[in-house]
Amino acid sequence: MTFLAIALSMALAAAGPVQQEPAGRGRGRGTPPQPQQKQGVEYFTGTWTFAWTGRESPVTAGPRKGTTVFTSAAGTNVLQIRTEGTIEDNNASFTESGTAEWDAAKKTLAFKETLANGTTLSGVGDWSSPLAVRYESQPARAGTQNVRIRRTYSILSAQSFSVSEEISIDGGPFQRLGNGVFQKK
After folding, report:
1. Sign for the pseudo-dihedral over CA of 174, 179, 184, 185
2. 155: buried, middle or exposed (CB in 10 Å: 19+, 13-18, 0-12)?
3. DSSP for 30-77?
4. Three-state DSSP state, 106
5. DSSP line for 65-82
6. pTM to 2 decimals?
7. How many Å apart are CA 85 and CA 94, to the nearest integer?
8. CA pair distance 172, 85, nearest whole angstrom
9. Which residues contact 36 (CB under 8 A, 6 or more apart)?
10. Whole-angstrom distance, CA of residue 159 vs CA of residue 183
11. In sequence order, what are the residues at sequence separation of 6 or more whose Cβ sits closer than 8 angstroms to the Cβ of residue 141?
12. % pLDDT > 90, the chain
């Protein structure tokens, strides 16, 4: 070892251990940590108001607003879902219902829904990331067409989530359908 290397080693030893800043936090310019909500039925349980913006399709009449209530029976991982609202264009009312079952081991939500037009959707949402649920339905019949729906539920905070929705009609490519913002009452 050279004299310079020995001197440097002694100086570093005398200075003590080097303190490292947390990853992503360089000199106060880092980003704050993402909010993460506990995954499970507890997150959704309650009453949420929403505004949904999007186009008309085989599964929806277009822009709408309303209230969705998620009810959980004590001690179960199943949510009952009931949505009531109005369609923006004609102020007509609509009702939708369904269930969502949480599987903690797989970190999934299995949805079964009956939409306002009578279409029944079922599928599984992957909630392995605490920031979002990624859902895709099984093929379903809506009028004369076969449809599949994809949704991303972005978990924004304890009081808010958003939904982005896409649709595939008769096996075609998925196209943007709309998005909704939900606020807890």
Report:
1. negative
2. buried
3. SPPPPP-PPPSHHHH-EEEEEEEEE--BTTB-SSEEEEEEEEE-TT-S
4. coil
5. EEEEEEEE-TT-SEEEEE
6. 0.80
7. 5
8. 30
9. 130, 131, 155
10. 6
11. 119, 147
12. 77
Domains, in order of start, for the chain:
41-184 (2.40.128.20)
Question: What digits encode the pLDDT tens for the residues 69-116?
Answer: 999 988 899 999 999 999 998 999 999 999 999 999 999 999 999 999
Instruction: Find where tokens 């879902």 sit.
Output: 81
For Cα atoms 78, 82, 84, give the angle at the middle one, nearest 5 degrees: 165
> What H or E segment, with its residue span, contains residue 10?
helix 3-15
pLDDT tens digits, 143-169: 999 999 999 999 999 999 999 999 999
* Contact by Cβ (8 Å): 178, 54: yes
State the chain's mean pLDDT as an integer.
87
